[in-house]
Amino acid sequence: MLEATETDLSTQQPEQLNGVQLTQFLTVKLGKEEYGLDILQVKEIRCWVPVSEIPNTPPYEKGLINIRGDIVPVIDLRERFGLPSSVDHNRDVVVLLQAQKLSQRRIVGVVVDAVADVVSVSHEAMQTTPAFASNVNTDFIRSLVNVDQRMINCIDIDRLLDWGNEL
After folding, report:
1. Which residue has the higher pLDDT, 38 or 123?
2. pTM greater than the 0.70 cutoff
3. Can you give the residue range of the structural domain that contains 119?
4. pLDDT range class, residue 18, cuts 50, 70, 90
5. C-alpha 145: how far from its chain's center?
6. Which CATH number characterizes residue 95's domain?
7. Residue-wise over 41-66: b if at least 16 C-beta within 10 A, else e?
8. Within 10 A of 90 (CB to CB), how many other CB atoms are there?
């Protein structure tokens, strides 16, 4: 398990292995499940800091933090996925992500239980999300990958953040 530090990952580049393009994911934990965040969209990993709450927002929108003069919204991924909120935020980690829609870029913090690993995956290893019942929304799942006997849900960050309401 990687420790939460104030780490800038914005200079990461795509990897290649024997001429095959690899996508790197930062894996994070929410309970027992593991999720992958595209490393090229990860800006920084930080320890939890208290947020300034905003009234009339969904429960998963925790509030705002100030990062070197920039105001950044913070979203709790546990609550966004319908899981119970963390009891002790002091143990949580905030991953700053760069989201984009059309030509607009925004930095958003997502609260996770822990940062686990960085994995490199070939395009061929990525599997599409299976069909579920009609009331299960998997639009934010980019793909599923199996790494070392672990199933990782790779998240489409731009879709997950649903720019219509949260940003």
Report:
1. 38
2. yes
3. 7-160
4. low
5. 16
6. 2.40.50.180
7. bbbbbbebeebeeeeeeeebbbeebe
8. 10
Query: What whole-number distance in Å separates Cα of residue 110 and Cα of residue 114?
Result: 11
Q: Is the pLDDT of residue 104 over 60?
A: yes
Count the Cβ atoms, other than its own, within 10 Å of residue 123: 10
What is the token pair recorded at 150?
């672990």
Quickly count: other Cβ atoms within 10 Å of residue 2's Cβ: 15
For residues 149 and 137, is the Cβ–Cβ distance under 8 A? no
Q: How far apart are CA 13 and CA 32, in angstroms?
A: 29
Q: What is the mean pLDDT of the chain?
A: 79
Q: Measured over all CA atoms, what is the biggest interatomic distance in the chain, rounded to whole angstroms?
A: 52
**Computed over its alpha carbons, how large is the radius of gyration of the chain?**
16
pLDDT score, position 64 = 96
Does the pLDDT of residue 47 top 80, yes or no?
A: yes
Q: Are strands 104-112 and 70-76 parallel, antiparallel or unpaired?
A: parallel
Residue 8 structure tokens: 């800038």
User: Using 50, 70 and 90 to split pLDDT, how confident is the model at 67?
Assistant: very high
In a domain, 2, yes or no: no
Residue 1 lies in a domain: no
Residue 166 lies in a domain: no
